Amino acid sequence: MPRTAVSNAPVSGVSDSMSSREKFCATRALTGALLASLSDADAVLQSMADASPAKWHLAHTNWFFETFLLRDHLPGYQLHDAQWPFLFNSYYEAEGERIGRFSRGMLSRPGMAEITAWRSKVDAAMDGLLDRPALAPLIALGIAHEQQHQELILTDIKHALFQNPIGPAMWEAGVDNPIRPLSHAGKGAHLSGETAAVSTSPDWHQHPGSIAHIGHAGAGFAFDNEGPPHRVLLEPFALASRLVSNRQWADFISDGGYHTPSLWLSDGWAWVEAESIAAPLYWRGDQHFTHCGWQARDPDAPVTHISYFEADAFATWAGHRLPTEFEWEVMAQPSDPAAGTQLDGAVPPLPRGGEEMFGDCWQFTRSAYLPYPRFRPAAGAVGEYNGKFMSGQFVLKGASCATPRGHSRASYRNFFYPHQRWQFTGLRLAKDV
């Protein structure tokens, strides 16, 4: 009788010291824990085409393991339901037809109980594969894939609950679950810009310029878009020691930032006018919407839920610019990628601030999401994971408060379209030296 793979698994993130089996168990347990506070009605909500229902994420991550590991590598394994790949395939053309992304919220069935039972079946079947060295890279990809969807579960349900006029909470704020951010140094300090007064202290970390080595190299998991490693020429630059804060963003708004077309890229200004954008997503007065409902907004916590267009406009207003992804990566290479405010267990994510390079929010760069020199996608369906999206998007670096701790690294390349802002996205300023 095979062991159930997730029995007694810790509800937390993963670490490099864990075995493949331990990482799998911890990841699967955390996904289930994140959905524990949702009702069946909550779990089927889809608020926009960019977001997916929590129940769909639960099923899709299971489909990934069943399809690419069990179906292809466990002799005699039979699909749990031959119709479900049509429902839970995301974008893999090589895996056949699937429902439209905008229709995922119409899937009232199968229900949560059926999907949970299916996950238990897959967990038990995976027990026979977890110790096979030849499958370790594919299992690592499945784990990293599920971690990405853990973050999406949190950001997608936040957007869905935000649509409700009464502002329902996914978790209640309390003694064991404080929503107020931690206090941190530098409150009210101001950074000097050539065209506006914005703030941070200390100001800048300088880099003299160099031929830098970029991309993942050596042992450990990385996505295919993080390589191959290559060299990049960097001119001297400086990077702000802190993320831009809510207080600084309020100054930008007060100074007419959303009403000054000269600050904006052409596409960005068209977006502002078409969508009547006047503040970051989830702002209302001095409050913001969180996983614990509407809460007072800490002015000194990092600003989040902004688009690339907004980040670029703010940088222009401040008299500086966004960093390139290469500048950010070089400055982050000595840092601990597990530091900063990141997701630890099934708790509400909230940016808190600090001087770490990682955590709090994904940081926009000015770099287009393009392939590195000599990049080749992997053969087969898994080759569709990243490469086919290298068009029209921008790279973000770091990790957010909704990123499972241990998931990111300096070479990690997140990417979004310039108008998207439902993720925990923010910015760190850069300047030429």
Summarize the structure.
The chain is α+β, with helices and mostly antiparallel strands and about 425 residues long.
Can you walk through the features of this model?
The protein has 433 residues and is an alpha+beta fold. It has 2 domains: 20-162; 191-432, paralog of FGE (formylglycine-generating enzyme) (Alpha-Beta Complex), CATH 3.90.1580. It contains 10 helices and 14 strands. The protein has a 4-stranded mixed sheet. A 3-stranded antiparallel sheet has the order 3-6-14, with helices on one face. Strands 7-8-9 form a 3-stranded antiparallel sheet, with no helix packed on it. A hairpin with a 2-residue loop joins β8 (287-290) and β9 (293-296). α1 (20-34) runs parallel beside α6, α3 (54-73) runs parallel beside α5 and α8 crosses α9 (308-317). The longest helix has 27 residues, at 136-162. The radius of gyration is 22 Å and the shape is globular.
